[in-house]
Amino acid sequence: MTTTRDRHRKTQDDAPSGFFEAEAAGLRWLAEAESRGGARVVPVLDVGTHHIDLERLHPSRPTDQHAEALGRGLALTHAVGSAAFGAPPAGWVGDAWIGRQPQSNDPSPTWGAFYAEQRVRPFVRRALDRGHLARAGAQIVDRVCDRLAAGDFDDDRPPARIHGDLWSGNVVFTGEGAVLIDPAAHGGHGLTDLAMLALFGCPGLARVTAAYEEAARLAVGWRELVPLHQLHPLAVHAASHGSSYAAPLVDAARAFA
After folding, report:
1. How many C-beta neighbours within 10 Å does residue 100 have?
2. Residue 252, SS3?
3. At what angle do helices 231-241 and 135-149 cross, to 10 degrees?
4. Residue 244: helix, strand or coil by DSSP?
5. What does the pLDDT look like over 166-182, one tens digit per residue?
6. By the 8 A CB rule, do 208 and 70 touch?
7. What is the percent of the chain with per-residue pLDDT over 70, rounded to a whole number?
8. What residue segments make up the domains of the chain, in order of their start?
9. Per the CATH hierarchy, to which homologous superfamily does domain 58-254 belong?
C-alpha cells in the first residue's frame, strides 16, 4: 500500500461503550483474511473509548483491475470463514453496530435463523415503531422471516467472514486497489456483502461481481436471492432514514413471502 503512515482519527465524544473497540476488532479480523489473499483492509493504528486511529488512505480513480481484484479478494475473505453464523469478530464480545444503530452478534447454528432474528426483524420493528413502515408491509417482511427461520433459504455454505456494511462508501479505491473501511463484521453469508454492493452501487460493480462469482463458485440462480440479502440494509435504512425505504423493503420481501 502506497499510503503513508499518517493517521486519520475518527472521534465521537458520546460513542457508546465499546463502539470503536468493536470497529477495531472487526478490521483486525478481516485483516487476518487479507494476509491470506483476502480483500485489503485499512490498518488500525490505535483505538480508545472515544476514538479510532486508522492509516490515512489516499483515494484514486478506480480501475477495472482494482474492481476485479476486489471481487476475488472479497471471495477469499469470505472463504476464511467464521466460527458460526452471527459470531462476532475474534477478540470482541458485546454489543455491535451498523453505522450508529445497535445490532446483536449472537452465534447461531443456521444462517436463516440468524438473519431473520438478528438482522431483519429488529429493524423492521424499529421502522414500524417509528412510523416509517406500515403494519401491512411489516407483515409481509415477517412472513419472509418465518421462512428464513424455518431454514427455507439455508444452503450448504459454511459461515463466511463478512464485512457486514459493504456499501460503496465503505470501499475506498486507492492507487494500489480497493480498501475496506467501517465494517460491521460477523459470521454471515457471503451474498450479503455482494447484495449490499449491488443495492447502493460500486465503481466497476459488474467486474467485482463477475470476479467474485468465479472465485466463490456461486451456484446457478444466486442472483435471484440478492433481494433476500438486501432485506437487512433496507430495514436498517427504513428504521433510521425514514419511510422512503419502506417500499423498496416490502418490494424485496414480496418475492419471498
Report:
1. 10
2. helix
3. 150
4. helix
5. 999 999 999 999 999 99
6. yes
7. 98
8. 58-254
9. Aminoglycoside phosphotransferase (APH), C-terminal lobe (3.90.1200.10)
